[in-house]
Amino acid sequence: MNVEKLRTADDWVMFYRHQAGLACIQRGGFVTLPVTGSVGIVHLPAARAERVCASLAEHGSCGPVLARRIRWSFLVIPDGRPGGQVSEILERLEITIPSVGGEIMMPTSLGRWTREGCHWIVAPTPDRELPPLSKVVTTALAVGRGGED
User: Fold this and answer.
1) What 3 state SS string does the chain have?
2) Quick check: is 13 in a domain?
3) 96 within some domain
4) 105, 112, 118, 128: which one has the fewest Cβ atoms less than 10 Å from its Cβ?
């Protein structure tokens, strides 16, 4: 599929569904990906997210990652939500995991500048698997922010 020919939100919904296996929907002229039992999201501050992505890529499993100015969003396979103390640590570190029913706006371009104000650091592809949520969270806790934690 030639992404240069994709013009409408519906075109991009079909692209994400067929080329990346993501169950995106069109809402109000924008493309969104709902959080479900099959796909989740982990939002991280950009500095920590960059190290998480590098660490995951080093081990061959950095799945799709979206960037906004100060936060990055990792698409993940939900394999259980962190509880108790881990949730408190994540909150303190400004790492959030939206619940089922939430959604994330998807870019309608594979370039750096999009009308949605986000771009792909690691774009989804048919052969790129989503990492488990637990792996992204564990890595996020392990990499720190360069000694500031």
Assistant:
1) CCHHHCCCHHHHHHHHHHHHCCCCEEECCEEEEECCCCCEEEEEEHHHHHHHHHHHHHCCCCCCEEECCCEEEEEEECCCCCCHHHHHHHHHCCCECCCCCCEEEECCCCCCCCCCCCEEEECCCCCCCCCEHHHHHHHHHHHCCCCCC
2) yes
3) yes
4) 112
What is the chain's length? 149
What is the span of the domain harbouring residue 30? 3-142
Residue 123 lies in a domain: yes
Burial environment of residue 56 by CB neighbours within 10 A (0 to 12, 13 to 18, 19 or more): buried
Q: What is the pLDDT of residue 56?
A: 94
pLDDT in tens, 85-143: 999 999 999 999 999 999 999 998 877 777 788 899 998 988 888 999 999 999 999 99
What's the total number of domains in the chain? 1
Q: What is the pLDDT of residues 43-62, one digit of tens each?
A: 999 999 999 999 999 988 88
